[in-house]
Amino acid sequence: MTDQKQISFVDLGAQYEAHKPAIDSAIQTVLNHGKFIMGPEIGEFESWLCKFTGAGNAISCSSGTDALLMILMAEGIGPGDAVFVPAFTFTATAEVLLMLGATTVFVDVDGDDFNMDMEDLNRQISITKSKNELKARGILAVDLFGLPADYKALKSVAEQHGMKVWADAAQSLGGSYHGRMVGSLGRATAVSFFPAKPLGCYGDGGAVLCDDDEMADVMRSIRAHGKGGAKYDIVRIGLNARLDTIQAAILLAKAPGFHDEIKKREEVALAYDRHLSNIVKTPTRREGRTSAWAQYTIQVPETERDGIVGKLKELGVPSAVYYPKPMHMQSAYKQYGQGEGSLPASESLSKRVLSLPMHPFLPDSHIDRIVEAVTDAVS
């Protein structure tokens, strides 16, 4: 009998059912001890993050966006500084720079793997330096859709220009790069625990991972209003960016199953690859890099995408477009880019990408229905 249950784009309900006893118990424990801010689960979860990723320090915080902001604040990024970011990403990557008065320099992406294009990165650095108006401080790489960027190449470029490499790994926790886990690839790495992420809490949450102990201490201060040795000893400008204890408890309850869930995401991706690679352009895999598969994103003809989305909806298959407009063409960022036509790969991708349901609880029967629907919609 065909499975006619509704297909979920991300099935948080199924995940909760899989971890329900542990999650319920963890929440009740917090309610019982009443330490809702910086309770013992915070330290426990940070220790787990270090063990899982291999990072020397984990500083939990209130969101992936605040994780990015904390990194940049700790590095002293501000007016007069230029930081290079991919144009094909979520707004958080760029907005944190502008919040600090720094200048965002948008870089085109690789049309196959969605991550920063090395050739255009070098070009944008040369243009920025030739103007002699800004100091090139660093590269904020994004591991889009879960696939780590090419950190060896990024670090090589950064070293040539005296810059640093930071990682926006909001979508890639659980992925790896040549045997090293995401979280240990840049000078500092921001991760997100937004509910729909590979490892999600039940609200907003994030963390910074880094090996530099001094930098980690600065970020611990920043997340708590810039405090020093005591609560009312304020030594720097900071944020109210602590992770709630209940969210840490939920993440701890999910943590034991996270490795297996990443494996299951890979199995779903492989199934899609097998059935769809001759029908649409499927995600490009890179040797030595494993994706966390936050999204499974195909590419379809620009003129056909709206029709494909509509057909999938008719067939009961949800889909999403990440992202319909690159950053340099967003109203808030236009002054920092060179307009339409300046970053062709990012502009083209925004018109052709389409993400399919992806989560570790996707049954084979649903995968079959999705594959059939996509095949029907593009034919």
Which structural class matches the secondary elements?
alpha/beta
Poorly predicted runs are none
- Spatial strand sequence of the major β-sheet: 1-9-8-5-4-2-3
> Number of helical runs?
12
Taking the alpha carbons of the first and last residues, their distance comes to 26 Å
What would you call the shape? globular
Query: What is the strand tally?
Result: 12
Beta-strand share of residues: 5-15%
- Note the main sheet: 7 strands, mixed
Could you tell me the mean pLDDT?
Answer: 97
**Helix amount, in percent?**
40-55%
Summarize the helix and strand pattern as letters. HHEHEHEHEHEEEEEHHHEEHHEH
- What would you report as the Rg, rounded to the nearest angstrom? 21 Å
Account of the 3D structure:
The chain is of the alpha/beta class and 379 residues long. Helix content is 40%, strand content 14%. The strands form three sheets. It has a seven-stranded mixed beta sheet with strand order 1-9-8-5-4-2-3, with helices on both faces. It has twelve helices and twelve strands.
